[in-house]
Description:
The chain has one domain (about 5-279): Neuraminidase (6 Propeller).
Amino acid sequence: MRTFKVAAFYSLVIMLTRLVPVSAQVSDFVTIDVPGASATLPRGINPEGDVVGFYGVGSVFRGFLLHQGLVTDIEVPGASATRPRSINPQGDIVGFYVAGGVTHGFLFVEGSFTTIDVPGASSTQPFGINPRGDIVGQYSAGGISHGFLFRAGTFAVIDVPGASSAGAFGINPRGDIVGQYSAGGVTHGFLLDKHGSFTTIDVPGASSTQPLGINPRGDISGMYVVAGTTHGFLRDKDANFTSIDVPGAFSTAAQGINPRGDTVGTYTTGGVTHGFLAR
């Protein structure tokens, strides 16, 4: 792995790209760009403010961890691409990697990688991990995508009745899970709480709603599409939606959210994808 310091760079970004707040809940934007990258895509943030994601250099995507101003590369040995997606309070990281044309999941703990593959799946993609180490994600089998929960060494399938596909993207300490499913050509979000109760989540007027993160309070981050444009959103525990749009950006997508409500994601402007932290 490669580590390089970006403290000065990061401070410069904070000074130059502080953006106008879009709502009472979102008070500040900070751009996150890995030096030398053609695209930077943060995906997860933990209570300590550590951020994980991946960045592009040409056609190659490398994973990264941003911790106290230091960026550390995260690369599964032998992989052609590594994509971290979530980090829990202990610093355990999950994501997926590509090797030999096959997508596998991984768990990264204290410098060691463990591969995660759903038995019989052609592709496994972990997206979220909580403090207990419960992992959620999506896998493909027979050309169909399903959600999964991996807990205590056992896989459980998460499927929505009547849906053509499903995926689980975030899990909080209580075990509440958010994700998406497709039915009738429309992508809907869902919340599956710890008691097994299922709630559909749709941003009003959206053709697609994708919840991607959930914190201990039950606040949900994600993205939605209206008239071909992608916007970020926050949904609080009372089911109130707030749009997240970086001013001047062509598109904005919110990804992970931590207990304080800090959110990371991406925005695109001038054909370049940047990361952001919204406080």
